[in-house]
Amino acid sequence: MATHSQATWGGRFSTGPADLMLAFSESVSIDRRLASFDIQVNKAHSSMLCHVGLITEAERNAIHSGLDGISRQIELGKFKWQARFEDVHMNIEQALTAKVPAAAKIQTARSRNDQVATDVRLFLKSACASQIERLKILLRTLLELSGEFSAVFIPGYTHLQRAQPVSIAHHLLAYMEMLYRDVGRFEVVLENANVCPLGSGALAGSTLPIDREFVARELGFVDAKGKPRLTQNSMDAVADRDLFVEFASACSLCGIHLSRMAEDLILWCSQEFKFIELPDAFCTGSSLMPQKKNPDSLELIRGKASRLQGNLQALNTMTKGLPLTYNRDLQEDKEPIFDSHDQLCICLSVMDGTLAGLMVNRERCAAAVSDPVLLATDLADFLVQEGVAFRDAHHAVGALVQIAEKAGVTIEKISDKEAAKIHPKLSGDWKSVFNLKKAMERRKGVGMPGPAQIKRQISRWRKLLVLS
Ligand code: ARG
Is the omega angle on the peptide bond into residue 325 within 30 degrees of 0, that is, cis? Predict the structure, then answer.
């Protein structure tokens, strides 16, 4: 029998890889994270080999108990990962073969190419589920805050200039919409991951009588009716990295939402706004300035969001020029998705912790929203109700604003006489539009910030999040 320079593929080589090459090409330091999925895949594959008569039941049983032993060792941190076996797959195969001779048959009708594709699909299914879970926790916290601060009005901004009154609740509910779309995106990625590539071999399947449906069923790649879902082209199955991109993209978009939320909160807790006070537990101080309390949790979330963009970009550029099918470049695909997953997980939890301890400064909010000029559009609407064309109404109110500004007074301080000079319809109870509470009540259509609508939205969310 020929001696092997490398345990798994050394047959046609006269020397093993240089140390430098080993250090360069190993991925086990990263992909050992897939070990539990790889063991699951090994079990399903060996069960299938037995099912079709390619190995005996005794061999399958020996392989399974060998895998259980390895799994325990890994959990206890006792498994010896070796860079010379390159990756998680070969480490497990080698350890298994050392204990169970029948494991020399485990790679029958299988390649690491379909194996890694399968492992990662299992990883992504569980990663999506855990992102969805965290997103829902954050959504619940946002909902609670929305309920608590539904009557706290603040200015809404465009161009970062005070525009029209909204409420803290309406602002937070806006983020809930975004995050709920993120939930939907992770659900789609999960669904797309739920297809089994095993049996695609290196790129062209196998001549052996394997049963792909059997493996898919074993691994839970089934539809709602329990029907196995299989990839339909062996070349696509081993070369496809769409899911990686989809997952990284869902993470990056969710990161963008968190980052925008972070930015609003950072503004709100500044001395200039002071709408909110952040919990000490999620802030840090300055090593030099004793008075400082910095919103570091939020700034870090904003920073992590760019890292999530980077991961997505890395995957896009990694795949765009690759010929079919597998190329070793693809080994670089795991770090970005692991990193995106980990970073988004912690960002969601940190955002949740920061929000949960947030205090609202009602006086500052009331002061910020008190300028009646925020209801200038309401005055234009008043004129529209009086039969004035909106463009003319806009112009008239604009002129009124200018007069008030020049006089250094707020708009409702302008006398009736002066107002009537600007537009004859600015008469009667035109100043009644500046009653903030009433102005908010008028905003009652679907999606608007009025209290009746907010109440409706909150109960809609309670149902969506199965809280009532
Ligand atoms: N560690 C490898 C990766 O993730 C597994 C596939 C290796 N395939 C190969 N033909 N060398 O890309």
Answer: yes
